[in-house]
Amino acid sequence: MGVTKQQLEKLKEPLQLKWRVRGLQPDNVNPTHMIIVGYVNPRQVQDRLDDVLGPENWQDDYAECKNKQFCRIGIKINDEWIWKGDSGTETFLDPGKGETSDSFKRAAVHWGINRDTYELGEITIACKMVEGKPFPCDVNGNVLKGELLLNECKRISALNESDLVFDKNVIQIKPNTKKEVLVKSGRNPNKPKVILP
What angle, rounded to 10 degrees, do the helices at 42-53 and 95-110 form? Predict the structure, then answer.
Protein backbone atom coordinates (compact mmCIF):
# COMPACT_ATOMS: atom_id res chain seq x y z
CA MET A 1 0.00 0.00 0.00
CA GLY A 2 2.86 2.44 0.68
CA VAL A 3 3.07 5.48 2.89
CA THR A 4 0.51 8.12 3.80
CA LYS A 5 0.57 11.89 3.43
CA GLN A 6 0.89 12.16 7.22
CA GLN A 7 4.02 10.00 7.16
CA LEU A 8 5.54 12.19 4.45
CA GLU A 9 4.85 15.26 6.61
CA LYS A 10 6.46 13.54 9.61
CA LEU A 11 9.71 13.18 7.61
CA LYS A 12 10.05 16.99 7.84
CA GLU A 13 10.29 17.10 11.63
CA PRO A 14 13.66 18.57 12.74
CA LEU A 15 16.61 16.27 13.33
CA GLN A 16 19.18 16.84 16.08
CA LEU A 17 21.96 18.79 14.40
CA LYS A 18 25.67 18.28 14.83
CA TRP A 19 27.89 21.35 14.37
CA ARG A 20 31.19 21.62 12.50
CA VAL A 21 33.48 24.59 13.16
CA ARG A 22 34.85 25.87 9.85
CA GLY A 23 36.96 28.69 11.24
CA LEU A 24 37.69 31.11 14.07
CA GLN A 25 37.93 34.89 13.82
CA PRO A 26 40.07 36.97 14.11
CA ASP A 27 42.48 34.12 14.94
CA ASN A 28 42.67 30.69 16.60
CA VAL A 29 44.23 31.99 19.83
CA ASN A 30 41.74 34.65 20.96
CA PRO A 31 38.65 34.19 18.81
CA THR A 32 35.59 36.38 19.22
CA HIS A 33 33.56 34.67 16.48
CA MET A 34 33.33 31.26 14.87
CA ILE A 35 32.03 30.04 11.53
CA ILE A 36 29.88 26.95 12.01
CA VAL A 37 27.78 24.67 9.81
CA GLY A 38 24.95 22.48 11.08
CA TYR A 39 24.72 19.00 9.61
CA VAL A 40 23.25 15.54 10.09
CA ASN A 41 24.92 12.26 9.28
CA PRO A 42 23.48 9.68 6.86
CA ARG A 43 22.56 7.29 9.68
CA GLN A 44 20.23 9.90 11.16
CA VAL A 45 18.49 10.17 7.78
CA GLN A 46 18.29 6.38 7.40
CA ASP A 47 16.84 6.08 10.91
CA ARG A 48 14.23 8.77 10.13
CA LEU A 49 13.19 6.93 6.95
CA ASP A 50 13.04 3.56 8.76
CA ASP A 51 11.17 4.93 11.79
CA VAL A 52 8.59 6.96 9.87
CA LEU A 53 8.06 4.91 6.71
CA GLY A 54 9.30 1.44 7.59
CA PRO A 55 12.36 -0.06 5.86
CA GLU A 56 10.18 -1.76 3.24
CA ASN A 57 8.77 1.56 1.96
CA TRP A 58 11.94 3.35 0.92
CA GLN A 59 15.12 2.56 -1.03
CA ASP A 60 18.13 4.38 -2.39
CA ASP A 61 19.95 4.08 -5.69
CA TYR A 62 23.33 5.50 -6.78
CA ALA A 63 24.78 6.33 -10.18
CA GLU A 64 27.40 8.56 -11.71
CA CYS A 65 26.06 11.53 -13.65
CA LYS A 66 28.40 14.06 -15.31
CA ASN A 67 31.30 12.83 -13.15
CA LYS A 68 29.27 13.37 -9.97
CA GLN A 69 27.83 10.86 -7.53
CA PHE A 70 24.04 10.95 -7.85
CA CYS A 71 21.64 9.42 -5.32
CA ARG A 72 17.92 8.85 -5.68
CA ILE A 73 15.63 8.00 -2.81
CA GLY A 74 12.48 6.14 -3.75
CA ILE A 75 9.40 6.09 -1.51
CA LYS A 76 6.48 3.75 -2.12
CA ILE A 77 3.32 5.83 -2.45
CA ASN A 78 0.06 4.12 -3.48
CA ASP A 79 1.99 1.00 -4.56
CA GLU A 80 4.18 3.08 -6.88
CA TRP A 81 7.83 4.06 -6.34
CA ILE A 82 8.33 7.83 -6.52
CA TRP A 83 11.96 8.96 -6.85
CA LYS A 84 13.74 12.19 -5.93
CA GLY A 85 17.48 12.70 -6.12
CA ASP A 86 20.47 15.00 -6.09
CA SER A 87 24.23 14.98 -6.61
CA GLY A 88 26.86 15.31 -3.92
CA THR A 89 30.20 17.03 -3.53
CA GLU A 90 33.48 15.53 -2.37
CA THR A 91 34.68 16.17 1.14
CA PHE A 92 38.23 17.05 2.11
CA LEU A 93 38.81 14.06 4.43
CA ASP A 94 37.35 11.25 2.31
CA PRO A 95 36.34 12.43 -1.18
CA GLY A 96 34.58 9.28 -2.48
CA LYS A 97 32.72 8.40 0.69
CA GLY A 98 31.92 12.05 1.38
CA GLU A 99 30.41 12.55 -2.06
CA THR A 100 28.20 9.46 -1.67
CA SER A 101 27.09 10.55 1.80
CA ASP A 102 26.42 14.10 0.61
CA SER A 103 24.35 12.93 -2.37
CA PHE A 104 22.21 10.77 -0.04
CA LYS A 105 21.60 13.62 2.41
CA ARG A 106 20.85 16.05 -0.41
CA ALA A 107 18.38 13.61 -1.97
CA ALA A 108 16.68 13.35 1.45
CA VAL A 109 16.27 17.14 1.50
CA HIS A 110 14.02 16.77 -1.57
CA TRP A 111 11.71 14.68 0.63
CA GLY A 112 11.79 17.41 3.31
CA ILE A 113 14.29 15.72 5.64
CA ASN A 114 16.46 18.38 7.30
CA ARG A 115 15.36 20.99 4.73
CA ASP A 116 14.87 23.84 7.19
CA THR A 117 18.37 23.59 8.66
CA TYR A 118 20.10 22.59 5.41
CA GLU A 119 19.38 26.06 4.05
CA LEU A 120 21.15 27.82 6.95
CA GLY A 121 24.57 27.44 5.35
CA GLU A 122 27.60 28.84 7.14
CA ILE A 123 26.83 31.00 10.17
CA THR A 124 29.22 33.44 11.82
CA ILE A 125 28.35 33.52 15.53
CA ALA A 126 29.94 35.03 18.63
CA CYS A 127 32.06 32.68 20.73
CA LYS A 128 33.96 32.63 24.00
CA MET A 129 36.73 30.46 25.40
CA VAL A 130 35.74 27.92 28.04
CA GLU A 131 38.52 25.74 29.47
CA GLY A 132 40.72 26.43 26.46
CA LYS A 133 38.07 25.71 23.79
CA PRO A 134 35.85 28.13 21.88
CA PHE A 135 32.09 27.70 22.27
CA PRO A 136 29.28 29.52 20.48
CA CYS A 137 27.48 32.07 22.63
CA ASP A 138 24.74 34.68 22.47
CA VAL A 139 25.29 38.44 22.68
CA ASN A 140 25.27 38.20 26.51
CA GLY A 141 28.06 35.59 26.53
CA ASN A 142 25.82 32.62 27.42
CA VAL A 143 27.13 29.38 25.88
CA LEU A 144 24.63 27.94 23.40
CA LYS A 145 23.87 24.27 22.77
CA GLY A 146 21.09 22.23 21.19
CA GLU A 147 17.89 24.07 20.37
CA LEU A 148 19.20 27.38 21.76
CA LEU A 149 22.12 27.25 19.32
CA LEU A 150 19.84 26.33 16.42
CA ASN A 151 17.45 29.20 17.22
CA GLU A 152 20.32 31.71 17.39
CA CYS A 153 21.67 30.44 14.04
CA LYS A 154 18.22 30.80 12.48
CA ARG A 155 18.01 34.35 13.85
CA ILE A 156 21.43 35.25 12.42
CA SER A 157 20.56 33.64 9.09
CA ALA A 158 17.32 35.64 8.87
CA LEU A 159 19.29 38.87 9.41
CA ASN A 160 21.61 37.98 6.54
CA GLU A 161 18.86 37.06 4.08
CA SER A 162 18.25 39.34 1.16
CA ASP A 163 15.74 39.18 -1.64
CA LEU A 164 18.28 40.71 -4.02
CA VAL A 165 20.22 38.46 -6.36
CA PHE A 166 22.59 40.11 -8.83
CA ASP A 167 23.62 38.72 -12.21
CA LYS A 168 27.33 38.88 -13.03
CA ASN A 169 26.77 41.61 -15.62
CA VAL A 170 25.09 43.91 -13.06
CA ILE A 171 27.76 44.01 -10.35
CA GLN A 172 31.18 43.12 -11.62
CA ILE A 173 34.12 42.35 -9.38
CA LYS A 174 36.92 44.68 -10.36
CA PRO A 175 40.28 43.05 -11.01
CA ASN A 176 43.28 44.05 -8.94
CA THR A 177 44.01 47.42 -10.56
CA LYS A 178 47.40 47.75 -8.84
CA LYS A 179 48.72 44.75 -10.73
CA GLU A 180 47.26 46.04 -14.00
CA VAL A 181 49.01 49.39 -13.59
CA LEU A 182 52.32 47.67 -12.95
CA VAL A 183 51.96 45.55 -16.07
CA LYS A 184 50.83 48.50 -18.20
CA SER A 185 53.74 50.68 -17.08
CA GLY A 186 56.15 47.95 -18.09
CA ARG A 187 57.74 47.75 -14.65
CA ASN A 188 58.56 44.27 -13.38
CA PRO A 189 56.74 43.90 -10.03
CA ASN A 190 59.59 41.76 -8.67
CA LYS A 191 62.23 44.49 -9.18
CA PRO A 192 62.53 47.31 -6.68
CA LYS A 193 61.34 50.70 -7.84
CA VAL A 194 64.18 53.20 -8.35
CA ILE A 195 63.37 56.77 -7.36
CA LEU A 196 65.79 59.41 -8.66
CA PRO A 197 66.35 62.69 -6.78
Answer: 40
